[in-house]
Structures are given as C-alpha cells and as structure tokens.
Amino acid sequence: MSDDRFRALVLEDDPDSAEFVRIALARYGGMHVDLAGDAEEALAALRRSTYDVLVSDIQLPGRSGLQILPEVRAIDPTLPIMIVTAFPTMNNAVTALREAADDFLVKPVAASTVVERATELAQRARTERETSRLRILAVGAHPDDVEIGVGATLAAHAAAADELVILTLSGGSVGGLAEARHEESLAAAAVVGARLVHLDFPDTHLDPAAGVIGAIEEVVAEVAPHRVYTHSAHDRHQDHRAVNGAVQIAARQVPSLLCFQSPSSTVEFAPNRFVDVDGFIDTKLRMLAEYVSQAHRDYMQPDVVRATARYWARFSPAQDVEPLETVRDSETVARTSAVRAVPAVDGQGSDAPVRLPDTAVRIPEEAVREANG
Known about the structure:
The protein contains 12 helices and 14 strands. The chain is an alpha/beta fold. It folds into 2 domains: 7-130, Rossmann fold (3-Layer(aba) Sandwich); 135-334, LmbE-like (Rossmann fold, 3-Layer(aba) Sandwich), CATH 3.40.50. The longest helix is centred in the first third of the chain and has 22 residues, at 111-132. The chain starts with 6 loop residues before the first strand and ends with a helix.
C-alpha cells in the first residue's frame, strides 16, 4: 500500500525544538517528518524529495530561514512555508510576507497549533497540486535521449508533482546491450518518478510508416498528455528526425509540443523557449549517471552537461537553462492556479515563476507592538 501521509520538512538547528516539532507532526498529525539542521541541508532535501509543508526557524547557522525562501520557491513553487521563530520582529514578519511565507508562529507555541496549521497548509498544497497537475510525455528514439534533452525540465515537473511518462522507441542495441540499456532506463526514470514505456523498434531504422506512428498514438491516447517533449527535426541522426515526424502526427491533438536538443542536433536547431532549471541539474546528472554503459561518451560528462546548461542561460536571467523549439504551446495548458511549476523564458521576455499566497501571513502581535513603540 502506498504511503499517502503528508510529508513535512522541519528546518531547525536546535535539537530540542526540532524534536518537539517532529513528535508533534508525526504523533499527532500522522505526518512523515524529515529534519534539517541548516539551510543547505534543507535545500538538498527539497531537491531530492517532494514535501507538503516546510516548517522553518529563522535564526540558523549560516543562512537564515528567510534568506533561502526564494531558493525554496524556485525548487518547489507549490510548497507551503510556515515560519516558527522566537524572534517575532516586524522586520522578520514583513520579510516573511514579502517572500510569500504562508504562516508565521511565535515560540513558544503549542503542539496542537503547530499540527493544526501545518496540516491545513499541507492539505491545501495537496489540493492545489492535484488540480494543477500536468501530464507530461517525453518521447525519445533511444535510451538516454530524453534525459540528455530535458532531464532537468522533467526534474522540475517532478518537483511540481506532475505526472511523467517517458516513451523510448528502441532498445538502443547499436550503442550497447539492449537488456542493460533497458535496466538503465528504468533506473533513470525512477530518479524523477517517471513511468517508462520502452518499445523495441529497430535501432537506427526507425520508420514512421512502419508502426512507429501507431505505437506513439497508443501511448498518447493512454496518457492524454498536456505537453509532449521530443526530438527536433534539426538533427543529423535519422532516428531522431523520424521520431520528430512521427510525434508531430501522433500527438497532433496535444496542446503543447516542444522539441529538445540532442548531441547530434545541427546548427539549424533554433530554440525560442529557455526553461529555467536552476537547482535541477544535479538531478539530471543523477539520471544520466544511471547509464553506466554510456559513461564513456563526451556528452554524458557532468562538466559538459553543466556547461551546456550555462551556455543557454545567456538567453535567460536564469543560471541554468534547457533550450526548446516550440512547435505549438497553447495557453490552455497554463496552470489555473497562481503557481507556474516549470518556469521558462521565451525570446520576448520572462514568465518566471510567480506565487500569490491565498492568505496573508499572520503578523504576530509582538511585531506590531514593536513597530508601534
């Protein structure tokens, strides 16, 4: 049976306070609780896993709980944040409000209050994620094609709890043992919680008219994706071009179709959408690391992957970017909530993530008294 308990991350450097919150949320709130003692540990946990609520102190070793809020929002725009602090100054409260924290509690605080507020926020996050969840299909000719092209983008989708399916059309036997590459593909998909559909069309001989279109149509009909990622037509590899043509036919009713870059892309590859993947390159590298049989290839090396993401960032205010060519991208797939799960920048400007809190942060009475003298 799957564990559908709420998941909470508690960022607190004081061991006694951390244990108090952990026990309250686990014993009385029925939550799965992870603890982080500093900002960097918390950010690493957020990149590894999806949580329903973050409970954070302000005063921490290194960076404060308020200073990291923009990074937390970049990793997971849907995550509710509850600040619990013994320093309820007006400056702290206003900063929390400015950075879109969802609640502000003052120590000492009753366990029942912590559980009540955290559960309320976690439930709201689950509801928002379910109603705004996208179904994503990524189609590649060979094992590792999708991960190379949009691995970090898929990691960003995973952080937003979107449903991910990877369709790989051949076993990749020309580049290695098909059985080994299949196991590698399963492991890579598991890194971002994607479901793998792995077919066995002949490597280097993919032909849209020889069943490939029909096979893709079957997966599209099953998944009913809001968005499809696949190869660009501007590619030297015949299989990549064949998959592009087949997907354009098979996914003709899908609102959004975007094409990624491959190591064999030509100079005609002309992206007009640049996905902000700050914080997700490490996840992409974990996916690629599963392809042990391909580790000797230059384009699989971490420095090349990082340099490529940094190069495309020159077209974006982000630090790391994955480039995409737009075949179509209907506005009907835009999220109806105030959260954009996969921030992106197009050639005309930015549509970076924006999150509008449903309710204002409760400014504590202590802070109001301080401001009023």
